[in-house]
Amino acid sequence: MALVRRASLLQYFYTRRQLQAPFDQLKAASEQARLLDRDLRRQDASRYAARHGHRVDTGGLVGHLDLDLTGSETLWPYLHLGQWLGVGKNASMGFGCYELLSL
Questions:
Q1: Distance (Å, rounded) from C-alpha 78 to C-alpha 30?
Q2: At residue 56, what are phi and psi to the nearest 5 degrees?
């Protein structure tokens, strides 16, 4: 749902129009997704924060998730768009990217 909120905010910011989406249906669809497999590991990273005057830890997770999205077809446009939007903490600094693969 963070991805849907981000798409909604960007649309409003650039067009001054509210996103006309069935948010309740999208939330229900996102809750139906099942995790099939995962291979995640923590990757440490840091960046220089001028405000703090020193390096700040900004690590996160890298790897892959296999999801069963059967019945969640309404999410596909947002998942597809999210490959370029980025989501989550520090998305504005290049984090939060993912690649969608359909098997």
A1: 11
A2: -125, 135
Strand, helix or coil at 18?
Answer: coil
pTM score of the predicted model: 0.75
pLDDT digits (tens, 9 = 90+) for 31-73: 999 999 999 998 888 888 888 899 988 888 889 999 998 888 8
* Spatial CB neighbours of 68, under 8 Å, sequence gap ≥ 6: 33, 34, 36
Overall fold of domain 2-93: Alpha-Beta Plaits (3.30.70)
> How far apart are the C-alpha atoms of 8 and 2, rounded to whole Å?
10
Domain ranges of the chain: 2-93
DSSP for 32-97, please give it. H-EEEEEEEEEE--EEEETTTTEEEE--EEEEEEEEE-TT-GGGHHHHHHHHHH--STTGGGT-S-
Structure tokens at 87: 């989501």
The phi and psi torsions of 8 (rounded to 5 degrees) equal -65, -45
